[in-house]
Amino acid sequence: MTHAAALLPLTVAWPLLGAVLLAGPGRWLPRLGADALASAWATAQLALLAWLWSAAGDGRIISWVAAWTPVDGHSVGIVLAADRIGGGLALLAAALVLAALGYSWHYFDEPESERGHGGAFPALLLLFEAGMCGFALTGDLFDAFVFFELMGVAAYALTAYRVEEPRPLQGALAFALTGSVAGYCALLGIGLLYSRTGELAFARIGEVLDREPAGPVSAAAFALIATAMLVKAAAVPFHFWLPDAHAEAPSPVCMLLSGVMVELGLYGLLRVYWTVFSGPGGIPAEAFRTTFLVVGALTALTGGVLCWQQRHLKRLLAHSTVGHMGLFLCAAALLTPAGTAGAALYALGHAGAKAALFALVGVLLDRFGSVDEHGLYGRGRDLVAAGALTVTGALALAGLPPFGTGLGKSVAEHATVHEAPWLLPVFLLVPAVTAGAVLRAALRVFAGAGTTPRQRHAGPETTGSGEEPEVRDPSRRVPRVMLVVPALLLGASLAVGLLPGLAHRIAEAAARFCDPAGYAAAVTGRTVPAAGPRVPEAGWTATGVLLGLAGTLLAVAMAAAALWGPALKGPAAVAARTAADRLTVLAVVPLRRLHSGHVGDYVAWLAAGLAALMVVFALCT
Amino acid sequence: MTTTLLAAAPATGQATTDPLPYLAAGWILLAGLHGLVTSRHAVHAIGCLTVVQSGTYVLLLAVGYRRGATAPYFTDIPPTTPVADPVAHALTLTDVVVGAAVSALLLALVLQTAKRHGTADPDALTGLKG
Predict the structure, then answer these.
(1) 20 to 30 A from A12, CA-CA: which of A309, A440, A492, A578?
(2) Mean pLDDT for chain A overall
């Protein structure tokens, strides 16, 4: 066993140990001590994962916990398997946890007696980190469920962290109920697979499943597991919890939820599909591709439309995450190495940009106790640095080259052209619309641009005014660390696009991710076939740069139209405004009405989605 | 322990092919979901979530059941005795632990919600819209 394999289980144990230390003895530490301990702990985890990522090289690190290796191909042990996609996601989670810890250094500056002790928040963050790292690195289906639940429970508790206020509780309740139903669906699917195969390691289930042709049991199991992963990945119609949770969770927690947790849901779907269901006993690739391209396109469009309609800044960013998740799902569902590489690069670039934007909204909440775009009109004029960073973040979200989002979008578009050209308009429109909405809000709040927005509004909406500030002293200066962290995150998003060789590494990792035979051989200890799938081209192309620039221009144009359009005179402008209003009433208001804030409705949508997936996959096998 | 489990593997009896437990698990799942959708009280909703989870217990126990087998506990029986699948039992036990953690957290959230909102009716808790 190599050093790397021996150290792999430590990636889960280390943050768990840190959480125990902070939650137990941490209560006697002063606030500063708890923050310092947590940051040091998270830095060590980041260093460990970075080393493992480089040690994984062009292969996989396999670790059977406590050396319970398979005997005659039959195993009862638990396996961890790190390749560069899973390991990379764990690394991303660790980096964002460190960023969130740094950001919240001065964030919850309240008297300690009011909210438990200073170690509780960092302890929960480390618990969340353990769940995410375990989920990204496990090679065992049942362990994936356990880590799914661990990350869920930590996320529910973090969402409701400001437990003395009503709305965070409501968001957390919706999140927790839908998340738990999703977890039990996954468990039912796992039970069905175990009854069929008697195995729990991904690779072994896949091998045993392929001995017989596909049947209704494997179709039902896949539909159940896919539902669970899609709830986490916030795909339509499983996404309803996400805006509620993101709008009410503390800003540093939103950075993690949007930046990496929802992406992990997508990773789980693809990991399970490739390692378990991609063979002859599983789900036909064509059925998977068609179904999830449609789901992805619907998700992207829903997210884009609802993002544009929001005035609650955190809900706006949350819907933008839904839109982007739809795009990642489309790219990954192509089931080609090129599409997977595009999704991975795009998600990486998006994580930096979106986490930075949530951090910057946290500055507004800190300062004004409101995240209402209309109510904050012109009030952020003196926050020059925050305003400049928000505009930069919006441009990054639009996919402006050379940001990592632009590179990921261009690689994903390039992969899509060959397989599903009808998706190209979605790839062009959705990032532009969500970036346009952020740009519109940034210019209104930080520059007072455009006409004064309406204060009152008809129809179902959450305004975001009257939010409790997450800190108690709004008169203080904005702590420097709350601007340094978003600046660093935006820099990281830029680095994803600029670092030479990174795109190629990720393309190699994607090719290996789409190679179930190589994965199964590595896990079960056979010789890995030397020739894996061909590594796709990934890098900047002239078309990609032009499309990125076009998307950015479109975003700027949409923001400008929203800001100055209402002031335009003349019959053409009036006609355009009337048409836009009519379209809103016909198409957008009914869509917004579906987001009712009622947990029962969310579960009903979940059940409907599950039933639809079951029917589709049962008919296809 | 490794040897015990591996020795047990060839001795496990015939897995049940009776569809009834699987149908029962599906029915319990649907009953729980129906309760969650129509619930008028958050504590009731959490009860329904536990019902959904009970569906997973039934399924896992059905998966591990072996006709004519005994408990997988080898201190006083010969290692060749047919036993029920111990892995399925381990899964069920983990499931119980996970469920306890989730229910406890949810009940705490509901208690706090009732304190802050003065109600635990999901129909009244719809402040987050659109």
Answers:
(1) A492
(2) 90
